[in-house]
Amino acid sequence: MRFNKSGISPLIATVLLIGFTIVLAALVFRWGGLLFKETTQTTGCESQGRIACTSSVELSLGAVTYDDTTSSEKITQLIVANEVSSKQITSFNVQVEQTTGFVKTVPLLETLAPGESKDLGSSLSAKKDFYGITRASIKAIHVIPSITQTTSDGSTCNVICLEQKTSVLAAQIQ
Predict the structure, then answer these.
(1) What digits encode the pLDDT tens for the residues 147-162?
(2) pLDDT below 50 — which residues of the chain?
């Protein structure tokens, strides 16, 4: 009995290798193109959002009251106003900076329309995140707004407006 020990011909092997290489190259180019497009869209949206933060958002703080008369210290009143803004503020980050340098941040999903004022104190009191922080240990309270930016191509992104960080020092807290 005689066995045929020949494999595939070198020509067919070369064609298969070239075919696999072309398919692999096409997949890499497709993936790279999608990654590039997504990165540029995200960067563009965030850039437009940063411009909107500086030109279309103006946040101001009114009265700030901190209750440390009970066992559960908390911010009971924090008046914020979206001044001459043309953008709606979609959320806030409230930070309590302590004299030790420690900063406690609490996100709030509160909206604030252009020209509107709101007391964020009740939302902060419900979270109980600042319990245990005494008034004497507070150096400052900071409020940082966030907006939702929509680009001309319809993509949206959330932008934290660090440029509009508004603060009140401990001496101004009632």
Answers:
(1) 888 877 777 888 888 8
(2) none
168 contacts 62 by C-beta, under 8 angstroms: no
- Dihedral pair phi/psi, residue 64, rounded to 5°: -125, 120
Q: Which domain holds residue 132?
A: 54-172
Q: How many domains is the chain built from?
A: 1
Q: In this structure, what CATH number is given to the domain that contains residue 103?
A: 2.60.40
Spatial distance between the Cα atoms of 132 and 164, rounded to a whole number of angstroms: 28
Position 95 in a domain:
yes
Residues 6+ apart with CB under 8 A from 132: 73
pTM for the model: 0.71
**Domain for residue 47, yes or no?**
no
- pLDDT tens, position by position, 4-26: 666 678 888 899 999 999 999 99
Exposure letters 96-133 (e unless 16+ CB within 10 A, then b): bbbeeeeeeebebebebeeeeebbbbebbbeeebbeeb
Amino acid at 61: L
Residues 6 or more apart whose CB falls under 8 angstroms from that of 97 comprise 103, 138, 139, 140, 141, 142
